[in-house]
Amino acid sequence: MVRKRHNLSQKDGNRVIKEGERININFRKGDAKIQMLVRNIQNKRMQPFYTTIEPGGGSKGSYSHIGEEFGIVLQGELEVNLNGKPYRVKKMKVFIFHPKNLIAGQTQVKRKQS
């Protein structure tokens, strides 16, 4: 089977974001490095972020927001707290939750970045 390769045109430029083009965002709390993986999050059903958490770092407290949250731990180990109950998420494992009725928080617990 031969698959046709599609070339992205100029109008498709919003679909591919290179590492150096990501937009850094900062929250008042926490010390995670967060980058948007889309140029504009308005009117989007999903808001993808690339987050780097240094060892011992994280959300520095609890938070909640509208919409589901999911992630995959690429390195290290992450502790996700949901209503005070800790869950350890190891390398190459996925977490998903709907924070509507939850209070969530995250802490990096291993020596490598997550």
Mean pLDDT, rounded to whole units? Answer: 76
Count the strands?
A: 8
Strand order of the largest sheet: 1-2-3
Structural class: mainly beta
Q: What share of the residues does DSSP label as strand, in percent? A: 25-35%
CATH architectural type: Sandwich
Give the helices and strands as they follow along the chain.
EEEEEEEE
User: Helical content, roughly?
Assistant: under 10%
CATH topology: Jelly Rolls
For the sheet with most strands, the description reads: 3 strands, antiparallel
State Rg: 16 Å
Helix segment tally = 0
* First-residue to last-residue Cα separation: 38 Å
User: Which word captures the global form?
Assistant: globular
CATH class: Mainly Beta
Number of domains: 1
- Low-confidence segments, ≥5 residues, pLDDT <50? none
Name some characteristics of this structure.
32% strand, globular, 3-stranded antiparallel beta sheet, Jelly Rolls, mainly beta, single chain, 114 residues
